[in-house]
Structures are given as C-alpha cells and as structure tokens.
Amino acid sequence: MKKIAILGAMTVAGLSAGVASAATLDDVKARGKLNCGVITGLVGFAAPNANGEWEGFDVGVCRAVAAAVLGDPTAVEFVPTTGKTRFTALASGEIDLLARNTTWTFSRDVDLGFEFVGINYYDGQGFMVPKELGVSSAKELDGATVCIQTGTTTELNLADFFRSNNISYEPVPIETNAEAQPLYLEGACDVYTTDASGLAATRAAFENPGDHVVLPEIISKEPLGPLVRHGDNQWGDIARWTLNALIAAEELGVTSANVEELGAAAGNNPEINRLLGTEGTLGEMLGLDADWAKRAIMAGGNYGELFEKNIGENTPIGLARGLNAQWTEGGLLYSPPFR
Amino acid sequence: MSTISDPPSGSFRLSMLINDTRYRSYTFQFIALVLLIMAFAYLGFNLLANLQAAGLNISYQFLGEPAGYDINQTLIEYTSQSSHWRASLVGVLNTLLVAFLGCIMATVIGVFVGVLRLSNNWLVRQLMSIYVEIFRNVPVLVWILIIMAVFIAVLPQPREFRGDDATASMVFGAFAFTGRGFYAPAPIFGPGSGVVIAVFLASVVGIFAFRNYAKKALYDRGQLIPTLWPSLAIFFIPAILAFFVMGRPITLDLPSLQGFNFQGGIFMRNSLIALWFALSIYTAAFIAENVRAGILAVSKGQTEAAASLGLRPGRIMNLVVLPQALRVIIPPLISQYLNLTKNSSLAIAVGYMDLTGTLGGITLNQTGRAIEAIFLLMLFYLAISLAISAIMNVYNNAVKLKER
Amino acid sequence: MSDTHAHSVAFVRDTMLPEQPPPVSEAGAVKWVRENLFKGWFNSILTILSIYFIYVIVSGAWPWFANGIWTTSSLAECREMLDGMTGACFSVLTERWNQLLFGFKYPPEAYWRPILAFVLLIVAIAPVLYPKAPRKMLAFTAVYPFLAFWLIWGGTLLIPLMVMVGMMAGYFAFKRFERQSFAMGMLAGLIAAVVVIWAGGIIPSSMPDVLALQAIPSRDLGGFMLNMILGTVCVSLSLPLGIVLALGRQSSMPIIKWICVIFIEFIRGVPLITLLFVANVVLAYFFPPGSNIDLVLRVIIMITMFSSAYIAEVIRGGLAALPRGQYEAADSLGLDYAQSMRLIILPQALKISIPGIVNVAVGLFKDTVLVSVISMFDLVGMIRGPILASTEWNGVYWELWGFAVFVFFIVCFSISKYSQWLERQLATDHR
Q: Is C384 near chain A, with CB under 8 Å?
C-alpha cells in the first residue's frame, strides 16, 4: 500500500516536473543564463578565441537570443556538441537552443521531435581537393578516398551522389572537423567534403589556403538553422522572431550603430517602430518587454553585420553573400513582416 | 541450556524483524528489493516523462530502414541501401575480425616477450621489461592514435608513388605501404585451382596423421621418427607439384596505382592496422606478464627433475614446464582476450567501422535513436563477454587438477 | 692410515697452495658479460641484435631530441630555425603548456587553484599511502575533498563547509546509535547528514559571496588536470562502493547477492566507452525532467560504477582467500556481521587485495583518456582537437604524443612501483 503511494507520488512529481520544464522561457529567466549548443570548433561559425570567449556566426544568434530574453548578450553558457550529442543534449534539456549549423530535414523536424525556427544560412555540400590533384569536377572523383564528418547529412548526400553518378569512393568517417584536418592535409584522404561554408572555414585555417580548391559542384541543399525542442511554442516563437528580427533589421537598415537612435522614439517607418517596440505591443505578445529586438540587434548587429564580421568577404573565411543575401538583392533571406 | 535456543514459537513481535537473525535477513532483502524497485520506477518514470516531453518513443523500427551511408570495410555484401540492421551486422563482423586478429598477434608477441623476459641474456631481459612497462603504463587509446599518426605523417601517401619523380616506391613491385593502408597481392583462383587447394588440405591432414603415427611409434615401440623435415616436405611438395601439374591455375593480382588509389590486391586499411597493432602490443605486454608468472609458478624442482631424467632444455620446456604453466596462464589469458575485444570499441577514435562505429556511431547519429542503439551495443558486448566466460568455465573445469 | 701413508711416499706437500686468482675469462666484468650476454651462439645473436636495435633507436632519436627547439611560437617558425636539420619542435609543449595541463577554457588567473589542490592532494594522501606518516594527518585527509572541490570549482566555501558539517553530524549520529546495531547507526547517520545538509543549504544560498572564489563550470575543466580529477575522484568513490558490492556478492541473502552479481557482471561485460556514451547521450533521459546534471558529473557517475565493479571483484578475491577459520573465529567471539567484517575480515581481505586494487586504479587512470572520445578536452582530447587542428601546430605529432606517453608512464609506473613497495611492507605473514 505504502509502496503504491510512494510510486504514485513519484509519478505525480515526475509528470508535474515534466510540465514545468515545458516553459523554457521561465527556466532561462530563473537561471539567468541561456544554455546554447554550438559546434565544438569551426572558425567563423563557433569557436573559442585565444581568451576562451566564443565567437562566430552561430554564436551571434545565441547572443542575440540571450540579449532579447535576459538583456545581456554575455549571459550565455556555450555547450560544445558533436554530431552525436547535439540532439540528445537538446532533447534532454541540457541546452535550450541548438545553433550548430544543423540542416533542417524532414525527419529531424518530425521524427526527432524538434522545431527548426528558421534558416540562418543557406548552404550546400561541396568538395575540397588539393590543387595538385588537378581535379576540376566532383564527377572525376572515381575511386577517391573521401573524408566525411559522421553524424551529419553529408554522409547520406555523399552516398546518394556517388550512387547516382555510378562512381565508387572510399569513405573515411571522422568525428570532428579538427580530426579531419590532419588527415586531409597529410593526404590520407584525397577529398574533404562538408557544407561549403564549413569547407571555406576549414580552408581558411590552413597554412596555405591557396593550395586547395573547392569544386564547383554543390550536391545538396543544406538549410542551416537554429532549433528548439518541440512542444514549447512560446520559446520557439522567441527564437524564431529573434532570428527574423536580425534579418528584418538588415532589410530595414537598422544596424547596431543606429538602433539606439531609431529606437529612442517612434520614427517614420511603422515597421521599424513595431520592430523596435516604439509602436505596438509585439514584445508583450512574445512574453518579453518592448525593447527585446533592440537588444538583440545591439548584441552583435543585424544579420548582415554578423555575416560580415564573422564569415564575410573581408574575413579569412571570405564567403560571399550568395543565397544569403536579402530577397531584395536576389537572395533568399525573407523575414515575415513584423505586424 | 538447550531450551534457550529454542524458538519462542507463536509469539511473533514486530521487533523480531530487526533483532531476530531468522527474520532479519528477510527484512533486509525486502528493503533492498523495495529500494531497487523504487529506483527503477524512479528512473523509468523520469525516462517516460522526458520522452513524452520531447515527443519521442522507444522503437526498433529504424533497424529495418535503409541506412543510407556507406561503409569502407565490409565483410558481407552491403550498400548504402541496406538496412541499419545489416550495417550493424557489418560492424559486428568487423569487431570480431579485429578482435580475432588482435588476439592471435597479442598471444604470439606476449608469449615471445614473456619467455624472453626469463632469458638468461641480461640485455634481452632488460629490453623486454622496458617493453612491458612502457606499453602497460600508457593508455591503449594513445597507442592507437600514435600508430594512426605514423600512417598519417610518416608513411607515403599514394600521391607520392605517382609520376616520374616519385618519392616512394613499391616493395618488390608487389607490396605498397601507404598512409592509407597496406596493399598486398591477392591470389586469383583460376579453373583447376580447386585441385591444388584440395591437395594442400589433404597434405595438412597428412601431416597430422604422420605426427600421430610418429608419436604412436615412439610410445609403443620406442622408435624415434624425425617429424620436422618430413612434415615440411608433406606441407610443400604435393601442393607445389599439383600447382605446376595443373598449369599454374593460381595467379597473383598485384596492386597498382590507378587514379587516386592503388587498385587490386588485398587492401588492409590504416584504421584496421592501427587498431590491430595497438591492441596487440598493448595486450601483449599484459600477456607477457601472465606467461612469465605462469612459467615461474612451475616449481624449479620440476625442471630439475626433468633435467635429471636427461631431457634436453627444449623438451623440458615443451613436455614438463609448459603443460603445467598453461594451467596458470590460460585463465588470465582468456580474460585478456576479453579485454582486447572490449578495447576494440576504441575503433571509433580512428574511424574503423566496428559495431561502435556503425550501430553506436553513424546509425545512432542518423536516426537519433540513442537509447535503443546504445542498448543494443551493450547487449552485444555483454553477449560476447558472457560467451567468453562460459568458455573459460568449461576450460577451468577441464584442466582442474584431478585429485584422487 | 695417514701415518703409514706418509712414510711410504717420498714427498708430500704439507702446506696448502696459495689460492690462485680465477682466469680472466671467469672473473669480474668479463665473466658477467660471458654469462649474461654471450653464452652460446643463440644468446650472442640475441645480444648483437639487441645492441643493434638500441643503436638504431638512440641514433635516430638523439639528434631529434638534442636539436629540439623550445622557444618558437609556430611549426613554420620552428622548421625555419631547424633549417633542414632533424630536430624536435618541443616549443609546442612550451607554447601550449597551460592548455595541455588545464585545457583551453580554465581561466589563467585561477591556475594556482588546481596546482594548490594537487600539492595538497599529495599532503592528504601521504598518511594513506605511507603507514609511517603521522596519524593526525588523516584529519586533513578527511577535510581535503571539500577543500579540493572549493579550490577547483570555486564558488563560496560555505557549500563544501555545509556538506562537511552534515557529514560530521552523520558520523556522530552513527557513533551514537552504533551501540544498538550497525544498521541503526548507518540509518541514523544518513538521516542526520541529509537533514543537516538540507537545512544548512539555506546558508550558502543566502550568502553566495562569503569566502567565494570565482566559480568555474566543470565543462571548463580540461587537459591533464581533468584526467587527474577523474582518476582521483572515481577511484576514491569506487572503493567504498566496491567493498559494499563485494560483501553483497558474498552475502547469504539471495536477493542482495543477485542484485550485486548482476550489477558487477553487467558492468564488467561492457566496454567503458559504451558507458561513456550512456553518460553522454542517454543518462540525461533518466534524470528528473528539467534537472541539469553536467557532463563531468555524469561521466564521474559512470566511471565510478565501472571501477567499483572491478574493485568489487578484486576484493571478493581477497575475501575468498581468507581462511574459513577467520570467519569462524569472529563468529565464536560473538561478533555480529558488521563487527566481524569491520574488525576481523575486511582489514585482512583489503590487505590481500591491495595489489589488485592498485592495478584497477592504474587501469582506471589510463581509461580516463577515453573521455576524449565523447568530446571532452582532457590531455588526449586537447592534443587531438584544439592543438593538432590549430594553424600553428598542424602536423606536430611526435612531440605531443611523446609528451602524453611520458606523462602517463611516469604516473602509472610510479603507482605500480608504490604498490610493489607497499606489498612488501604489508607482508607480515610469510616470514
């Protein structure tokens, strides 16, 4: 009898705890820190600098969310995750937000129970080879030894690509980007394949980046974006609209330099006013205050600023905007209206 | 006096559950059971609550779905369209392969080093103890990574074999030692090669029959028939004769550099070799100590008695010391084999596709079924270790000293 | 007899000949060399082979070692300084020294804390390792875990202090009720400790800044320090657990016995790496929703379970090796189970098990490098990840791996030498 009572009590405790944890926003506020999952180290996207501070494009998203929710862009605990641990870390609640260049796929969204809140980088899988091999197309790679990072969509794309082109290859599975570099550089693999942005970032870290070429073929669509657990819509909305705010800010010309001024008082552009909280109650609807987007933009600048600072053409990584330009400039970035 | 120890029947009090030794064990067991059930229930409820919150379930359906990834070393037929189950099977076979190779090589090196540690050559003794101490006291993962580093950094890559001013070349034109692995000629069995193989197998059987005959002659008639040279002759001559009689049906497929890699021949991947060698030399250091302890456990009187019977040192070792030492050596040897098999799961550090690499690695990553995949992974290793323990028990019973 | 003999022979020497020195080939170094190196053709071949082997190793490694460069800041610079000569770039060790020891995220201004904790560890462990050290130092050993926790993880001193007070309360409660029965004592001790810690938990949370060091999250730990922490913590936690499991396995109560047997055999049957996977990706599902147990703690839990199963088997061997008479003697003195175990059986059984326990400890310490596989940055993880992948040190293998081999060899070899010494010290019976 007593045992049943204890079991019953535990069930109730367990279930109520389950319900309580659904409100991620409250958890984050109570903790005073945002737990953000990032890659273990990919220069430009997320990597600790010499002082041990994380910086990069994905890190910028984490900081923006932290700024919007907690008012402090540094109130982030960065949790490095590998391909293997990232989904469990998110599912088990170890992290609140996963911003680790993760491809949005059907099964991840539906079967694994996650919610992708948007796309912060439109990518595709590419190949990098040493120049001296004289390869100019991925179709010439018959019989090549290919280094792949496991646990990503790249190994599935790779299998599909080689099968559909009816050529053979030898896969060498690697756990992290760091381990792949020496293998590729010393010639233990002929080709290194991952997302084109990752290739650019990896190549930038080489001693002689010019000795390596990225082949023109992009064999897959890799929409990379941050994701949250399924089922907590409020938290999902916050992450989604923080990302949208960064994108919209670029479109509207709001930068970290002028956001203070624009947000001080309502201006002529009603959408800017709504975004920065000088008009309407968008922040309140999200469960945040009116200045949330202003803080998010101030954290690291709008989308364009983040891009230019971390991975843009003036950085060693040197990525062009390409698909990641605003829709007004021929790209795919298109934030739903703030209304 | 005897009445005191009689149980005071019929008057059971609650305090007796604690104070009476007859009931106390029941109390403790009951408490332990309740605590265990509560602990499991607690973990189970947490699991359910967490899964529910994450919208997940426990299901093994993913095993039947197409894996979608390629594996570089497959002992059975496998394509990226095969199921996750098949991929796991490939991993199991790869695990067993490296464990099998590792056990053989570790035993050979271990026995060699263990015997040399007892050599009367001072220098050899010291070298061998340095070997044992260095390899025993450094993690096997470090050895695996070091051997992999040799492959990556020291051995020439295929591209260095290419061109007119190649900096590396093949050994005897047949073997290539590259950073990606070793290439060796592979036999091609043409028509008629079945006869050669049959002759070869028959001669192996013949060797055993001959040795049995020689032994019988020794025991029954005291007639000493030399066995070494006739055995070698039986081993080689018929097979070679058959080979030429049949018109050389077995040819060699030599590896040659084509495109990015060597093609043809037998290819042993760098990850397999790194894992195999590292596990072997690491485990061999332990086996060497077991062998040494086993030999030392045979009392000196046995050796002296054998010597006084006029046996030569080689025969003393074979007929007197080793049979007794084996009784001591084999149980720890088998548990070293078990350790080696378990350590082979470090394959993941060098990308060797054993079970940890397929089921516990890529399948887990692709399907996100962490709980199921790791559960199956543990079950497999558990089954292996239980099987090996069972073998060990059978052996221990078989060699137990029959005391009369 | 001898008299007649003496008369019948013309001359008999009646003084001993002076002792001749042995032939040169049978004395001193020459004899030693002949007997130990060149006895028979087979041995001679072995010796020559060995000498050649040593020559190859030394002639290859010496210039590499002697020309080593210790002061550059990147591989390219180092290669330039070497200018084509064979030589090692040990500068990777000097330049990345702190990263190798502490990981790349531990704040540099706090390096003194783990160093101090390490020095104090030696002080705390001395009375345990050397039976001759003053017994009073054991008090410091008891305090040490709390001090080390505070030093390494930081935060306010009040938290470990409160836990320590709770432990002491538990100990006194145990002493108080031990007279009634051991089980009562344990129960009372447990309750007292939990109550005090729970009640006292208010104090540190209300004063988080009293005697506070900068708090350092455990995922910032790294380098060799992480190996040391994992090794020390897990070995010391798994000892008591192992003793309990071993006693449980020997127990006459079937349920308790089978629980222990299944636990031990399960853990021993699976590789540590699968348990680390559990810690990494599965264990979080088994904690209450919303709780956030960090990775280092989860890893400590799994490694402790792992090593306690092995230690339990070693201790079980020790228990089995005790003569039956010891158990019977304890019973005949009228001691109950807890008393006989504590006073008669365990002291002897543990003594027999010491070499085995030390072997397990060495094995466990080596196994802590496996955490690099689950993306923690211990010594091996640092080498494989941040250092080998950095632009400056891409391709420095031998210096780094040589360093790892050196460090682990020094630690493990000295532990096993210590265990051999202790075995001799404790050998009181076979004199």
A: yes
A82-91, A177-186, B3-12, B337-346: which has the highest mean pLDDT? Answer: B337-346
| Contact: B349, C277; criterion CB under 8 Å | no
In angstroms, what is the C-alpha Rg of chain C? 30
Asked if A82 and A101 sit in the same domain, the reply is yes
Query: CATH classification of B84-139+271-399, choosing from 1.10.3720.10, 1.10.8.60, 1.10.10.10, 1.20.1090.10?
Result: 1.10.3720.10
Q: Find all residues with CB under 8 Å of B121, minimum gap 6, and list them.
A: C36, C37, C39, C43, C46, C47, C50
Read off the tokens for A43. 């220069």
Contact A150 B364 (CB under 8 A): no
Distance from C-alpha of A54 to C-alpha of A46, rounded to nearest angstrom: 6
* Yes or no, beta carbons of C375 and A186 under 8 Å apart: no
* Interchain proximity C289–A14, CB inside 8 Å: yes
A206 in contact with C, Cβ within 8 Å: yes
Residue C5: predicted pLDDT: 56
Q: What DSSP element (H or E) covers B262?
A: strand B261-263
**Cα dihedral sign, C201-C202-C208-C211:** negative
pLDDT of A13 reads 42
- Interface check for A81 against chain C (CB to CB < 8 A): the answer is yes
The answer to whether A69 and A34 have CB atoms below 8 angstroms apart is yes
Distance CA B120, CA B258 (A): 52
Look over chain C and give the mean of its residue pLDDT values, rounded to a whole number. Answer: 84
DSSP string, A17-48: HHHHHT-HHHHHHHHTSEEEEEES-BTTTBEE
User: Rounded to whole angstroms, how far apart are CA atoms C106 and C296?
Assistant: 14
Residue type, B267: F
Tell me the mean pLDDT in the region C393-405: 87
What residue numbers bound the domain in which A197 lies? 125-220
What pLDDT band is residue C305 in, cutting at 50, 70 and 90? Answer: very high
Q: Which residues of C25-51 are buried (b: 16+ CB within 10 A; e: fewer)?
A: eeeeeeeeeeebbeeeeebeebbeebe
Beta-carbon count within 10 A of C10 CB: 4
Name subunits touching B (3+ CB pairs < 8 A): A, C
Contact A183 B152 (CB under 8 A): yes
Rank A64-78, B247-261, C152-166, C331-345 by mean pLDDT and report only the highest: A64-78
Q: Which two tokens stand for residue C272?
A: 């540590």
- Paired tokens of A86: 């990232």
Residue A74 lies in a domain: yes
Helix (H, G, I), strand (E, B) or coil at A114: strand
Question: Which residue type, as a one-letter code, is found at position C232?
Answer: T
Q: Which pLDDT band, with edges at 50, 70 and 90, does C74 fall under?
A: confident
Mutation target for B interface from A155, A228, A229, A230: give the one with most B CBs within 10 A: A155
In a domain, residue A286? The reply is: yes
Domain boundary among C64, C87, C118: C64
pLDDT tens digits for A280-324? 888 888 888 888 999 999 988 999 999 999 988 888 888 888 889
CB–CB of A92 and B159 under 8 A? no
ipTM entry: 0.87
- Helix, strand, or coil (residue A101): strand
Share of chain B above pLDDT 70, in %: 94
Answer whether A158 touches B (CB < 8 Å).
Answer: yes
Disruptive mutation site among A87, A92, A177 for chain C (greatest number of C CBs within 10 Å): A92
- Compute CA B355 distance to the chain's CA centroid, rounded to the nearest angstrom: 14
Residue C131: pLDDT above 80? Answer: no
Nearest chain A residue to B258, by CA: A143
C125 CA: distance to closest CA in chain B (Å): 21
**Which residue in C207, A91, B110, A66 sits closest to A58, CA to CA?**
A66
- Compute the radius of gyration of chain B from its Cα atoms: 30
